[in-house]
Amino acid sequence: MLNFRKLFSKKCAVIGMVHVEALPGTPLFKNNLQSIISKVKKEAEIYLENNVDGILLENMHDVPYIQSKDFGPEITASMSRISTEVRHLVPNDIPCGIQVLSCGNKEALAIAKVCSLNFIRAEGYVFSHIGDEGFTDANAGKLLRYRKQISAEDVLVFADIKKKHSSHAITSDISLEETAKAAEYFLADGVILTGTSTGYPADYNELNMLKSTSRLPVLIGSGVTVENLENYIGADGLIVGSHFKTAGFWQNDIDKERVKKLMQKLNQIRSE
User: InterPro entries per the record (predicted)?
Assistant: First the structure.
């Protein structure tokens, strides 16, 4: 918790998600990397104007996703370029993070190290699952050894548990609580609780359970809206993406009024 608080000192920190447009080599790439960078910077500026507590970059538009073993170097190179631009734009006291889909945890760590980012969002950290891109094996041991090898211990790892868009039938006898405890035992810096898919709300009863049983920071990773914000105020962090988009749909552009309204409501709750 101490490392988390060094980055996020405010109650229930809001991390604004930037869904990066499709990168080179992926089916929806539009052959213009500079326009991707310009849009990312514009969205980061909207978040800064509305005083979000952190920013998270993710290559969400690279559908259909492939596993990291099948990545071409262009994905890591592109996300490194984008991350560099964002880090230059965002003040150093605003934490920035990255997730590389799908399960590009080592790639994310490498990018964070060289681009001075502060955290990564990691898939498959403990226990295996089946995602829509295939089988994902647990990777905490390899990931943290790699973090040590590249001297990136200052990059925090926030691990999804019982991850959205996935089947957990093979670990159905392992509870959410046990999964969180395994992530803690395997030295995660925080756990992320989600709904079943992008934009779907997490179960706030599960949040309360994790807060009472885990010593790790608990972040909500999907489905937070201005309407249900109060259900999640006990979380240490809220990763918000879809709700900040026009009509609340992840593929749309960020709507600055949506960002403004949520942050205003959160700040009001914080001051009570």
Answer: BtpA (IPR005137), RibuloseP-bd_barrel (IPR011060)
For tokens 């934009």, the residue is 199
Q: Is the pLDDT of residue 171 over 90?
A: no
CA distances (Å), origin 45, targets 40, 48, 118, 259 = 9, 5, 18, 12
CA distance 126 to 210: 16
CB under 8 Å to 187, separation ≥6 — which residues? 140, 144
- Cα separation of 272 and 270, whole Å? 6
Tens of pLDDT, residue by residue over 4-58, are 999 999 999 999 999 999 999 999 999 999 999 999 999 999 999 999 999 999 9
Q: Where are the alpha helices (DSSP H) in 118-255?
A: 140-149, 176-185, 204-213
Determine the Cα–Cα distance for residues 207 and 138; give it in Å rounded to an integer: 23
Give the other-Cβ count within 10 Å of 95's Cβ: 21
Q: 159 by DSSP, 3-state: which?
A: strand
pLDDT digits 0-9 by tens, 185-232? 999 999 999 976 566 889 999 999 999 999 999 999 999 999 999 999
Edge-to-edge strand order for the sheet containing 134-136?
134-136, 129-131, 166-167
- The DSSP code sequence of 71-110 is --HHHHHHHHHHHHHHHHHS-TTS-EEEE-TTT-HHHHHH
- How does residue 131 score in pLDDT terms, banded at 50, 70 and 90? confident
Residues 163 and 121: beta-carbon distance below 8 Å: no
Tokens of 182: 């395994």
Q: Which CATH number applies to 2-271?
A: 3.20.20.70
